[in-house]
Amino acid sequence: MTKQFIGKRIKRNEDPRLLTGQALFVDDVEIPGMLHAAFLRSDYAHARISSIDVSAARERPGVVAVYTAEDMGDDWEPGPPLVSPPPTLQGVTFHSRRQAPLVRDKVRHAGETVAVVIAESRYIAEDAVEDISVEYDPLPVVVDLGKALEPDSPLVHDDLDSNLAAHLYQQKGNYEAAKAQADVVIKKRFYLDRGAAAALENRGIVAHWDEKGKQLIIWDTTQAPIAIRNGTATRLGLSENQVRVIAPFIGGGFGPKMMMFYPEEMLIPWVSMKLCRPVKWIEDRRENFYATTSEREQIHDVEMALTKEGRILGIKDDFLHDTGAFDPYGLTLPLNTQCHLMGGYDIENFSSNCSAVFTNKPIVTPVRGAGRQQGIYVIERMVDFAAKELAIDPLEIRKKNFIPPDAFPYNNVIVDQAFATLILDSGNYMPIYEKAVEMIGYEQFVKEEQPRLRAEGKHVGIAITPFIETTGVGPYEGARVQIEASGKVYVTTGYGTQGQGHYTSFAQIVSEQLGVAVSGVRIITGDTAEFHWGTGTFASRGAVVAGNAVHAAASAVRQKVLKLASKVLATPEDELELEDGKVRMANIPHTSVSLGELAALANPLRGAVEPGTEPGLEATDYFGPQYGAAAFGTHAMIMEVDPETMMIEIKRYIAVEDCGRVLNPMIVEGQLHGGVSMGIGNAYYEKLHFDENGQILNASLADYLTVTAYEMPPRIEIGHGETLSPLNKLGTKGVGEAGAIPVPALFAQALENALLDYDLEILETPLSPNRLFELLYKS
Amino acid sequence: MRNLFNLSVTVNGTLYEREVEPRLLLSDFLRHDLGLTGTHVGCEHGVCGACTILFDNEPARSCLMFAVQAHGHKVITVEGLGTIDSLHPLQEAFWEAHGLQCGFCTPGILTTLVPFLEKNPDPSEEEIREAISGNLCRCTGYQNIMEAVKLAAEKMRD
Amino acid sequence: MKPPPFEYYAPTTVEEALALLAEHGYDAKPLAGGQSLIPMMNFRLAQPSVLVDLNNIPKLSYIHRDENGGLLIGAMARHNMVQHDPLIAERAPLVHDAMPKIGTPQIRNRGTFGGSLSHADPSAELVAVSVALNGRFRLRSQKGERWVPANEFFVGLFTSVLEPEELLIEINLPPLSERSGWSLMEVARRHNDFALIGVAAVVSLDKNGSCEEAKLVFLSAGDGPVEAHQAAELLKGQKLTAKAIQAAAEKAASADIDPGSDIHATAEFRRHLANVLTRRALNDAFERAKGK
Question: Where would you tag: which of A24, A39, A740, C161 has the fewest CB atoms within 10 A of its CB?
């Protein structure tokens, strides 16, 4: 059958609703009798609560209830861990500490929920929050990651001896032996700091407990509705089937909406059950900075051992990872970092200690990139420094060390976030790298343009950064595909959507199997009443895992269609084809039967059916990959810097990406554009500033600087490779985070290259004009 | 201090009369009192632009206005630009050029662009960038939004 | 982030507005464009118990010539209107240049000239520009009127000499002298952000092409607009050579301003930028002055 849908730039099914304001987001939900919640959040980052007086708040007209931890009684308990440490990892220390819906003993980060007000409107609820008086006993605060493990540091969790949340060690080969053989050993320390996801839509939850029907419906801006349903049912003593969680249209996820259970997610459904009224809580932007998770703070002490020809013999990286005040997300982030510390290079020896550390700051969970950027930043910086030290061309040194194409699947020995051994399934790094080199015009720039610009006194630099990205991890997802008697195709999966175009890319997969127009495929995602098996949208796994589940289910339906059509048309299956919503004989196209007619035939109202037949043209199937698929790419950039004002201007930007089979190039490009914009933010604009009291100094969009149209390059030029993944039938890999991953490393290289006369050495990210000023003028 | 005002405002061509508290933000009035949820709220401090509507035909942040200030005025929201069956050429262009992903910032960008394109039927890239510089988008990196605007200008010129 | 409750009045004449301000005194705040006040109210950083909405007084919005070749601007003239007005471009090109730097297009549809000045934010372009242009502000209350020169109007962080019962109703911008040039230079992290620091420069030349007078006014360099008096003094009577300009820039940065530090820029970085921007602004202004 001709491939008509996969790989095509098809307009998105979901767009008309989004464009006309007809798409439902959580805050759009209105239920008669709905109440509104507002939280009293701690201003202190670390303090005991001696007393809370909510009496004045309770008396305010329009206030229906006020709850503190004490009011929850036996229902008060911390949330379950979302991710546990891999059982496959040896010698792990892990102290699980999870957040509770309302603080009981002491506050551990600024913004923790101390009380909740339920009122007729959000306005009144906020007024009542100001009526509450809390007596805090402030405690010394620990915010500095580098100091949190010192013996005299304040303890975030008093029942532990230190702020060590976790420790793990991974190795490959024997680094010390490799070091002994090396001609040169490079040592550096890197500082990486926090950024927020800052999705345009803040979090929110509406919970509606129907007392008569004993059903709970929840709308939640979550990336994991099924897990929310199951966890909520357990917490509230309900059966899973009494709880329905709907993740409707969501205004951007980027990771933090995958985190669960947030305190509000534990509390609001409980309140709804208590009051037998629907309750809505919508996070405001100021809350978002404190109450929604963020990521990226690490300190790395790195060593790289090389031969004088530039061959990397080994790398050792001992690093600290800030997990914030609690650690519900296990070791996912440090493991992702470790799995990217070798990049796409053939490195036989690796050693890495990681200590995850508690601090009095908001919780750390994945934000687009999820620990991968830090790994890529470190390896790419180290390779740059090695090139400098050995006087080898930075491109040549990389080419020397890339994993060769015949070495795949490449076993990197260490354990990854999905508890499996890190195996890079397929790859062909050189052509992608060289494509980027060519697209940016590297040779010509370095030989002609740059010297000319330098002579004019301009500081223009070029950078090229390769990277890998582990994607498409398990455990699994599922999908159900059904052809209805109308001829329309209905698909449902638990895998939610936050703008990635699943309503279209999944439809394309179905269209490919069933020969229907993409616009004729209706996808329902993120509603547990429609489909209740699966994990969630994270780690660039949608196309791979959910996509392949959709593919499997659609293929199964295709088989049913062919079998039935074969009988109806009295023709062997291999002489039939599916096109335009019909099944027709390949040689006699006007002999056909429509899919709708077949669906009706498959669901007879009278007569007998053969034993073992399933009604209708419907199938449910699942997909779980053996391990994650490793996508890869190279970004390149030409950037001008004004060394007087520290202002930068990106002149050209190239992103070459290989994510295996592409379902919809338009959607993939969009993901890359968005990822790069976040990467640029992470490199030069975005940083969460904490003061020594654990307060966020830039908790507003005026001061937390996400990029606008002006900060973007004139155009992101995209190149593609397509090295199929052997791990799934579609041959596809993930791409959702790729755009963001190499950018900080790319910026560092470009700045150093632009400012060669300043002999800059960049060991940190994010940067800023002020920081660049300090690096240039204080050296 | 619960003084209520009689508000009379035309939204998307329909006259609405309601009693409102002065502090009710125009964004909340449109979304919750009138049920026009196409206008989105991203920050409530006037930076993100998701709440942008047309106030007397000029783009303005509805989170930085009180509903009472709209008394006697004309408001157009994204719902007034087009419907699923009859999209405005700008909406069509965004659809064709993949100018939206999660769609949360989109209504505010569409309302901002309608008067812009009416005044600038053949805008330069620089002018387009300036026009959307007051709207934050976290998904698209703005590139396809720019393409959509160019496409829309073409459509609207024909 | 919802604002706390307040009493709301929407007068249709200046007299009505002034009567309300006189009645409520410190409890009341005038509401102009709202682009600075309403975010503060949403954050509950400002909690006025009475708001006097000035947006229904059309008489307060205008741009006229005055008889001296300068301009009279009604306080409620919206930034958008000022940005596109040909009189502004002709008689106050420094203002014309400042307008696109103010906020974003949507902010400029609501924000007002007088509102920005009354808010007295040291990062506001119009604050520095009005001082650089020797602007004069007309303040009115029920008791009467007074004119205040721009450089006396701003007395502290977000503080002007406006009494609670007074309104800024008009701004007069005198014309620039014949052989003068101007420039506004600033550095911001993102294009539309508040400047890390900026300088409005106006220079006038004498018949010999030497500097007759220079005015350098900084934004984001202190609690209010900061005039670089010592730098200006250095330039007086001088030929504007690269060396002279450099000396003035260094003086301004090291001696005239005392900028603060925040998460976006340290005082040291601001001084460094002030030096660079002053040099560039003086060059720019000088070129313009010569061109006339």
Answer: A24
Residue type, B60: A
A98 has a pLDDT exceeding 50: yes
Q: CA nearest A195: which of A261, A112, A293?
A: A293
Residue A661 in any domain: the answer is: no
Reported confidence tier of residue A767, pLDDT bands at 50, 70, 90: very high
Q: What is the pTM of this model?
A: 0.96
pLDDT tens for B131-143 read 999 999 999 999 9
Mind giving me the DSSP string for C83-126?
HH-HHHHHH-HHHHHHGGGSS-HHHHHH-BHHHHHHHT-TT-HH
Residues 702-731 of A with CB under 8 A from C: 702-703, 705, 707-708, 710-711
Strand, helix or coil for residue A555:
helix
Residue of A461, A397, A465, A467 whose CA lies nearest to A436? A465
- What CATH topology corresponds to B89-157? DNA polymerase; domain 1 (1.10.150)
Interface of B with A in 59-98 (CB under 8 A): 77-79, 81-84, 87, 91, 94-96, 98
A480 in the same domain as A366: no
Indicate if the pLDDT at residue A2 is higher than 60: no
- Asked if the Cβ–Cβ distance from C192 to A286 is below 8 Å, we say no
Closest CA to C211 of C202, C221, C203, C200: C203
Q: Which residue has the tokens 């106030």?
A: B55
Provide the pLDDT for residue A538. 87
Determine, for residues A127 and C191 on separate chains, whether the beta-carbon distance falls below 8 Å: no
Q: What is the pLDDT of residue B3?
A: 84
Indicate the helix (H) or strand (E) that contains C53.
strand C50-53
Residue range A135-190, pLDDT digits in tens: 999 999 999 999 999 999 999 999 999 999 999 999 999 999 999 999 999 999 99
Residue A280 and residue A292: Cα distance in Å, rounded?
A: 17
CB spacing of C6 vs B133 below 8 angstroms:
no
B chain contacts of residue A676, beta-carbon cutoff 8 Å = 141
Cis peptide before A766 (omega within 30 of 0): yes
Exposure class string for A160-175: b at 16+ Cβ within 10 A, else e: eebbbbbbbbbebeeb
What is chain C's alpha carbon radius of gyration, rounded to the nearest angstrom?
A: 19
Q: In a 10 Å sphere around its CB, with 0-12 CB exposed, 13-18 middle and 19+ buried, how is residue A29 labelled?
A: buried
Question: Is A520:A488 a contact under the CB 8 Å cutoff?
Answer: yes
List domains and CATH numbers for chain C.
7-53 (3.30.43.10), 63-173 (3.30.465.10), 180-291 (3.30.390.50)
Strand-pair partners of C73: C63, C171
Which chain A residues are Cβ-neighbours of B146 within 8 angstroms? 709
- For residue range A398-450, what is the model confidence (pLDDT) as tens digits? 999 999 999 999 999 999 998 889 999 999 999 999 999 999 999 999 999 99
Look up residue A130 and give its amino acid.
Answer: E
Complex confidence, ipTM: 0.98
Q: Is the peptide bond before A261 cis (omega within 30 degrees of 0)?
A: yes
Q: Residue range C215-224: average pLDDT? A: 97
What residues of chain C lie within 8 A of the CB of B114, using their CB? none
Do residues A541 and A473 touch, judged by C-beta distance below 8 A? yes
The DSSP element (H or E) to which A312 belongs, if any, is strand A312-324
Question: What range does the domain containing A506 cover?
Answer: 15-22+474-623
Q: Which of A276, A268, A109 is nearest to A699 (CA)?
A: A109
Class of B5-79 in CATH: alpha beta
Q: Which of A589, A623, A657 is the last residue of a domain?
A: A623
The predicted structure's pLDDT at residue C292: 64
Could you tell me the CATH number of the domain that includes residue A616?
3.30.365.10
Rounded to 10 deg, the angle between the A394-401 and A429-439 helix axes is: 160
Bridging pattern class, strands B14-20 and B52-55: unpaired
The two tokens of residue A296 are 């990226």
pLDDT in tens, A639-660: 999 999 999 999 999 999 999 9
